[in-house]
Amino acid sequence: MVLPAPSAIAELLKPITWFPPMWAFACGAVASGASADGRVWLVAGGMVLAGPLVCATSQAVNDWFDRDVDAINEPHRPIPSGRMPGRWGLYIAIAWTVLSLLVALAFGPWVFAAAGVGLLLAWAYSAPPLRLKRNGWWGNAACGISYEGLAWVTGAAVMAGGAPSLESLILAALYSAGAHGIMTLNDFKAIDGDRRMGIQSLPVQLGDRNAALTASWIMAVPQVLVVLLLIDWGRPLHATGITALLVVQVLMMRRFIAKPRERALWYSGFGVPLFVLGMLVAAFALRGLGVPLFSGVPA
Asked: Which of 116, 164, 203, 218 has its CB 3.0 to 4.6 Å from that of 181, i.e. a possible disulfide?
């Protein structure tokens, strides 16, 4: 049996993609309000679950089911290049799925449930018969939920040792929705290829400008709702910080909308970091609440 080289396995699992869920995990951990003292290994284990396990699984699953397309468009990747021989890509995807579930189980039912849903979405995104990635509305939603919301919930649950607060779940849902727009940014570079392959990304369905407008609104509206919630929860300084970040994003969005194909990568590099920085600000706002507002006990 020919074994794949460690370098090919690492390339298949794409470490560069692990940052978003690990960041969201950290935001959830901060939002829990729990102290990290004496929990370093717990936090480290949770971040490994979010990035090198669950996210890496999604990358392996995607590359296996995209191997025929990659053979045409990106033949240098591990599977089409032959550096990942036979069915090793599938075996690694299955093994990483099982390993992720076993690690999640050790953290308790909330983390196990979040990881389980994330893994189901990872397989549904790439694998037939669902193959959600063929439609930009469904595929981007699956990615946003997995990369942001579920990772946030995992971080909050790990630190809380149980169910996250309702406030934390609300913010996780809002930032998941906003991440849908972030995922659309990645589709502008592949419009022509997606049309040929029958992939209905939002730029293919709506056209360049309308897709850019839609993605911008999807990114902006959840942040506006977060600001309004933080004001209602008595966190005006945090709300002001997120508002300032959003104003800069809106100015950048106007430039992006003018030339979506040319500037989608630019916005990803400079606008998206402001979105994720706002996530951390919101997480610290929840930490400041001390007692969750919806617990029935005055904050």
From this structure: 218
Report the alpha-carbon distance of residue 96 to residue 119 in Å, rounded: 10
Percent of the chain with pLDDT strictly greater than 70 = 96
Residues 138 and 201: their CA atoms lie apart, in Å, by 10
Span between the terminal Cα atoms of the chain, in Å: 62
Q: Look at residue 233 and give its three-state secondary structure.
A: coil
| Amino acid in the structure at residue 141 | A
User: d(Cα 291, Cα 78) in Å, to the nearest integer?
Assistant: 49
The predicted model scores a pTM of 0.90
Backbone angles phi, psi at 5, to 5 degrees: -70, 150
Task: Measure the CA–CA gap between 86 and 69, rounded to whole angstroms.
Answer: 17
Name the region of 88 (left: φ>0; alpha: ψ -120 to 50; beta: rest).
Answer: alpha
Distance from C-alpha of 134 to C-alpha of 128, rounded to nearest angstrom: 10
> What is the rounded CA–CA span in Å between residue 273 and residue 219?
12
Which residues make beta-bridge pairs with 200? 135
Query: What is the secondary structure of 127-138 as a DSSP string?
Result: STTT-GGGBHHH
Half-sphere exposure of 131 (CA within 13 A, CB side): 12
Domain boundaries, the chain: 7-163, 165-299
* CATH dotted code for 165-299: 1.20.120
Closest by Cα among 92, 102, 28 to 56: 92
Q: Are 148 and 171 in contact (CB under 8 A)?
A: no
Q: Is pLDDT above 50 for 293?
A: no
Task: Tell me the helix, strand and coil percentages in the chain, rounded to 5.
Answer: 80, 0, 20
Q: Domain 7-163 falls in which CATH fold?
A: Tetracycline Repressor; domain 2 (1.10.357)
Q: What is the largest CA-CA distance in the chain?
A: 64
